[in-house]
TrEMBL record:
Keywords: Lyase. InterPro entries: ClpP/crotonase-like_dom_sf, Enoyl-CoA_hydra_C. Its EC number is 4.2.1.17. It comes from Candidatus Thermofonsia Clade 3 bacterium. This is Enoyl-CoA hydratase. GO terms for molecular function: enoyl-CoA hydratase activity. Belongs to the enoyl-CoA hydratase/isomerase family.
Amino acid sequence: DHELDERTLHVARQLRDGAPSAIRLTKYALANWLRAAGPLFDVSTALEFLGFAGEEVREGLAAFRERRRPRFDPDCPI
């Protein structure tokens, strides 16, 4: 939408006209944070995908389709 495009250009121009060292240091700090936190995202994503393949997903979907409350196993292994 036009308003979003205008706002995006406004922010981009502010960054372009900003102090180069401040922008460089901010990018450096963000890159370091991402390098440190990246492995956590990998583990989180892997665990999420493991959950997608589990019995709870099948039961949740079945309950949704049948318009009933799900009956989850309280003794699940995880």
